[in-house]
Structure formats: structure tokens, C-alpha cells
Design brief:
There is one protein chain. The chain has 633 residues and is mostly beta strands. Among the domains are: 5-223, Galactose-binding domain-like (Jelly Rolls), CATH 2.60.120; 228-333, Sandwich (Immunoglobulin-like), CATH 2.60.40.650; 475-510, Laminin; 567-611, no CATH class. It contains 5 helices and 39 strands. The strands form 13 sheets. Strands 2, 4, 5, 6, 8, 11 and 13 form a 7-stranded mixed β-sheet that branches. Strands 1, 3, 7, 9, 10 and 12 form a 6-stranded mixed β-sheet that branches. The termini are far apart.
Length: 633
């Protein structure tokens, strides 16, 4: 680990990115499809965040994790070190091991008191919650009792409750050993079911010795009861080269009921390189299709030594539930005694291979032998007899003494159920698709699909229509404002406000003071002042007593409207109609018919003289906006 974990705990950001959104059931995390992206960043791991647990217990006090119920304090921050190839040998914390089988590992220390993972789940509508995971020893240094506890709480605050059935008192072996795997499978208490938010905590703690690193893998939380299987071998005792059938009787899970049941067995102890799939299709010696009897067959390797070999089978359903079961196959020499007895299937009096009956007194694949001594064997058409172990996707071809399986285009493998099967070829990952640059490649079973990026249309393929730019402006699918222009660009569009408006093109507002008169403005004299200066246009609205024309707007007082503004000495309200203007009470004015006449009237009013008032006082002009004076008594 880079630097001291104490420094990491002290400096890690308390708002480090994380994804604590409650996850629905079934929930599964094996760290391969959603690994940690970067140090102290859990945002790519749905529903899981790892914390240092600093301050949860005293330094080296040996408190077992099952007795730590308090939630993480202020010093407990999200931590993780991504992209490790091996677990560190000192300074605890949480690391992501990016190996063939990725996993998350934890270890306590004096600085990282109780590292833990918090898993946030949504169990709404669920009546029973089943939790399972594997604890793995990934540290060969030392040998302490490194414990791991499972706890839960309803909601996101408050203390945690320990689940005693899940407690692993010592998950490690040693010294100088690693690899021990401890499987945990428990049902949570009833109050954990039917809740919008339930949090699980997998927690270890600083021991009084040199802490070891333990990993968590294949973490799952499912609803209801998992399916169960009873597995048998026919025969249970066999010789080398003998075909062995694996049979499983399955009881579906409940709450909800199981669907899409699958049984897979690990026969690697017998030298098998791929998992053995058991079938319920009526074509693999399993009885009738869909009768919950699963079966498949394989052959005991000729070079296998005498002994007892475990075969680990697992039954799982589409609800994410899984149950393991182990059976044992005993291998020994029982051939060439002159008797045809179990597990012998033939005796032809020789040990030559390729004649139907091998040296282990077993009928060779692709042959059929009678019960006589010596036996007589003939070739069997496994394809016609449906006894070949080709997977469903493969094509079966009979050969003398055997058969071949061929995968269809878009798939790779040997086509055998006991071999590599037929695996889909990911053309996108291998770069053998023909998607154009502006298209995204999506792998499909036996094929691939291309999809154009937003703003482009077509089938996305170089051999097809490719991806052509979509003219959103012409199609009127843009979001430009009515006061804006739309310009098409590659894969998108651009909006620009028209002259007289300002904004981002999606929203445009009239600009007051730019000399352009647009919708929403009564005038615009290139002056956006609204300080009572009285120039006729204030905040792009025509002031009372004025009229404006043009752009930029030119404004002049209106003579005859009864309002004294600007340079008017007086103004009398002149009614519209024919005939000469009436006496203005000392104010002479003409009738304006527009801006030019208004300007002439204003000049005439400035030169007009008004009748003198008593005691020789001269009438004063009114303030702009003041009410006109009434007649004196």
C-alpha cells in the first residue's frame, strides 16, 4: 500500500465518491463486472462502500468484530486502494485485488482499527433475506485469529446488530500458508425483510498480533429459500477410462419460487478443465425434460491415481439463489479378473484401446458392447442416439468410435459440455466488428450490433448506411428560442440569439440600450438609463408626453397632450377634431400629426407667450409629470 495507512485515514476526503443507493434483490458482487475505479472511490461499486473503522476500538485491545456495534465515527472514512496484484504485508486497510478472480481484501492495524464494508439493500416486498459470501485467506505471513463478523441494521443510522450464525472466528491458516476458503450462508432476522433500506456490515478488527489479510468474494443477498439438490454418481466406484454419470434431483426454492434452474459441477479434481453442466432436457440420461432430474456424463481420466475425488456441484436459480453440494467418486482397479461385474461394462480379453473395450474394462466412448466374454463391440452413432455431449448450440457429427462437435459462427470452443462448450465471441472487444467511428458496438450472442451516437442516424455499419448527421434545425427538433437562429453542426445543433436579443440561444431576452427596437420594447434610443432624465425613452419604454420613432429611437415631446415635458414651456390638452386649436389659456400650440409636426409644435410652444397674471407675475412651467393648473377664480 502506498504510504502509511494512518496518513491515508487522516487525509482521505470525507466526501469521497461512493454509491450507497439501496440495491434491490437479488444482489450479487464478485468484483469482476463493477470493480473499484480508483483509490477511495466506490462510485463504480453499486451499493457498497468500504470504511477504515478508525476509532471504533482501542489500539490493540483485541476486541472481536462481533462485539463492535457502534457505527463508524468521524475518523472512519471511505478507503480503498485499487488495482493491487497481491495483498500488502503490513499497514491494514482495504484493497482491491485485481487478479484472475478479483476480490476485496481487508486487514486491521493500529491505524485502521476495524475496516469494514457496508452494503445497502432494498428488501421491499421480500419476506426472507438470505446472505452468502466466501471469506478467503490471501496472506501467508503469520497466523493470527483474524475474525470476520456479519452485522445489519434497518436504515442508515444507529448501531448494528450482530448475526451470530455468520461469525468466522478465524478465517486464516498458516504460517506460510494461504488459500483457505470459508463459505458463509445465513438468513437475516425477520426485521431485515420488507424494508426500503437495510445495511449489512462485514467487519474485521485489529488483533493483538500481526493482522492477516482476508478477502470477501461472491457476495450475494437474495429473497426466499434457495433451491436444493441431491447429487449421485453412477457408478460411485469406477476405474480409469470409465464413463461416469452425474445425476442431481432438484427441489426448487421458495418465496419466490425458483425459475430457470441450473446445475453445474466442478470436476477439476478429476482433471476436468471446464465446469460440467447438468441438463434437464431428456437428452443426457436425465429422464424426461423438465422433470427436475438433471444429468450429464464424463469419463474418468486414464492417468488418474487410485483414491477418492470430490465433485462439488451447485444448483442456482434466476432469483440469484445458490446451494452447494459435494459428492465423492472412488477410483480403483477392478478389471481383468475374468468377471463382468460393476463398475465393469465389458471384457474383450485384451487391453488394446480403440476397439470398443479399453484396458479398464470400460466401453469406450462411441462404441456399444455386448455382455459376452470376450465382448463384441460396434460403433455407435452418438448424434442419432442423442448420447453425444455436444452443447445445444453445437452441431454433432458422428465418427468411427466417437463424434465431433462444431460451434456455429460467432461462437468459439470445442462444443463439448465436458469441454469448453461454445462461448460467444465478443466481436466488439476483439475489434473485428465493422461499426463506424461514430457508432457504438454492442456484443450479441453469436453476433454484434452497431448504434449511432446521438445526433446521427443509420445502421452504424461500414457495410451498411453508416452514421449520417441529423439536421435537427431542418427537422425542427432543436430547442432554440423563437428569437434565435438554429445552425446544424455534426451530431448536434447551435442556437444564437437574433440582433437585439441576448442569451444562450435557448432563452433570449430583449437587450435594452443597443439601439434596436424588438418585441417587448416600445423604443430603444441606445441609452438604457432609467434615471428620470426625461429623454422620452426610459428602460426601452416611451415616457408619458413623448413619442418615438426609428432605431435607434428618436423621441420628441408631444404637444397638445396636456403634459409639460423636456423644453415645453406649457402644454394644453388639445382635443382631436377639425378646426383651429382653441385658446390654450396663454399657451399657443398646433396639432401634431407625427414626430415632425410634434417637433415643430414644440418649437412653436417654446416661442409662445402666455397671458400675464395679476400683480405682474409670470406663469411658470409645470414640472414634468405634474397635473395641469386649473383656472383661477
Amino acid at each position: 500500500m502506498v504510504g502509511a495507512v494512518g496518513a491515508l485515514a487522516a487525509t482521505a476526503s470525507r466526501d469521497a465518491r461512493a454509491d450507497a443507493v439501496p440495491q434491490p434483490l437479488p444482489f450479487f458482487q464478485d468484483w469482476s463486472t463493477s470493480p473499484v475505479a480508483a483509490n477511495d472511490d466506490w462510485s463504480t461499486v453499486p451499493g457498497i462502500v468500504g470504511y477504515s473503522g478508525a476509532g471504533l476500538i482501542g489500539n490493540n485491545d483485541g476486541t472481536p468484530p462481533s462485539e463492535i456495534s457502534a457505527e463508524g465515527g468521524p475518523a472512519s472514512v471511505p478507503i480503498v486502494e485499487a488495482d493491487r496484484a497481491t495483498a500488502p504485508t503490513s499497514a491494514g486497510g482495504i484493497v482491491e485485488l485485481v487478479i484472475d478472480d478479483p476480490m476485496i481484501a481487508m486487514s486491521g492495524s493500529a491505524q485502521v482499527d476495524a475496516p469494514h464494508l457496508i452494503v445497502t439493500l432494498d428488501t421491499t416486498g421480500v419476506t426472507r433475506v438470505h446472505v452468502g459470501y466466501v471469506v478467503i485467506d490471501v496472506d501467508r505471513t503469520g497466523n493470527v485469529e483474524q475474525a470476520l463478523a456479519l452485522q445489519y441494521r434497518v436504515g442508515t443510522a444507529g448501531p448494528f446488530t450482530n448475526v451470530p450464525e455468520a461469525y468466522v472466528a478465524d478465517a486464516t491458516i498458516g504460517p506460510n500458508e494461504l488459500g483457505q476458503r470459508t463459505r458463509v450462508a445465513v438468513d437475516l432476522p425477520e426485521d431485515a425483510a420488507g424494508q426500503p433500506v437495510v445495511q449489512l456490515r462485514l467487519i474485521t478488527a485489529n488483533t493483538q498480533g500481526g493482522d492477516e489479510w482476508i478477502a470477501i468474494d461472491n457476495l450475494r443477498a437474495v429473497a426466499g429459500h434457495p433451491p436444493q439438490a441431491v447429487v449421485t454418481l453412477l457408478p460411485a466406484r469406477a476405474g480409469r477410462g470409465v464413463p461416469v454419470q452425474v445425476r442431481a434431483h432438484v427441489t426448487p426454492g421458495e418465496g419466490p419460487s425458483s425459475t430457470d434452474l441450473v446445475v453445474v459441477c466442478d470436476a477439476s479434481a478429476l482433471g476436468a478443465e471446464a465446469p460440467l453442466r447438468l441438463w434437464d432436457d431428456g437428452a443426457h440420461g436425465d429422464g424426461a425434460a423438465d422433470d427436475l432430474e438433471f444429468a450429464s456424463a464424463g469419463e474418468v481420466p486414464l492417468g488418474l491415481a487410485d483414491g477418492v475425488y470430490p465433485i462439488i456441484c451447485r444448483v442456482r436459480d434466476a432469483q440469484g439463489r445458490i446451494s452447494p453440494v459435494t459428492v465423492e467418486l472412488e477410483i480403483g482397479p477392478w478389471c481383468d479378473n475374468g468377471l463382468l461385474e460393476p463398475p465393469e461394462s465389458c471384457e474383450d480379453g485384451n487391453d488394446a484401446p480403440g476397439d470398443g473395450c479399453d484396458a479398464a474394462c470400460t466401453i469406450e466412448p462411441g462404441w456399444q458392447c455386448d455382455a459376452a466374454i470376450p465382448a463384441s463391440c460396434v460403433d455407435v452413432d452418438e448424434c442419432a442416439a442423442s448420447s453425444a455431449d455436444c452443447v445445444a448450440e453445437a452441431t454433432c457429427t458422428n465418427t468411427v468410435g466417437g463424434f465431433t462437435c462444431a460451434c456455429p459462427d460467432g461462437f468459439a470452443g470445442d462444443g463439448r459440455a465436458f469441454g469448453t462448450g461454445c462461448a460467444d465471441v465478443d466481436e466488439c472487444a476483439l475489434g473485428i466488428d465493422d461499426c463506424v467511428d461514430r457508432a457504438t458496438c454492442t456484443n450479441l450472442p453469436g453476433a454484434f450490433a452497431c448504434s449511432c451516437a446521438p445526433g446521427w442516424s443509420g445502421d452504424g455499419r461500414a457495410s451498411g448506411s453508416g452514421c449520417a448527421d441529423v439536421d435537427e434545425c431542418a427537422a425542427m427538433t432543436d430547442d432554440c428560442a423563437p428569437e434565435a437562429t438554429c445552425t446544424d453542426v455534426d451530431g448536434a445543433w447551435a442556437c444564437a440569439c437574433l440582433p437585439g436579443y441576448a442569451g444562450d440561444g435557448v432563452t433570449c431576452a430583449a437587450v435594452c440600450g443597443d439601439g434596436l427596437v424588438v418585441d417587448g420594447e416600445g423604443c430603444d434610443d441606445a441609452d438604457d438609463r432609467d434615471d428620470g432624465a426625461g429623454d422620452g425613452c426610459a428602460a426601452c419604454a416611451i415616457e408619458a408626453g413623448w413619442e418615438c420613432e426609428g432605431a435607434p429611437s428618436a423621441c420628441a415631446p408631444v404637444c397638445g397632450d396636456g403634459l409639460v415635458v423636456a423644453d415645453e414651456a406649457c402644454d394644453v390638452d388639445v382635443p382631436d377634431g377639425p378646426g383651429p386649436p382653441p385658446e390654450g389659456g396663454g399657451c399657443a400650440a398646433g396639432r401634431g400629426g407625427g414626430l415632425a409636426s410634434t417637433l415643430l409644435a414644440a418649437l412653436a410652444l417654446m416661442a409662445a407667450s402666455c397671458r400675464p397674471r395679476r400683480r405682474g407675475r409670470t406663469a411658470r412651467p409645470r414640472r414634468p409629470g405634474a397635473a395641469p393648473a386649473g383656472p383661477r377664480a
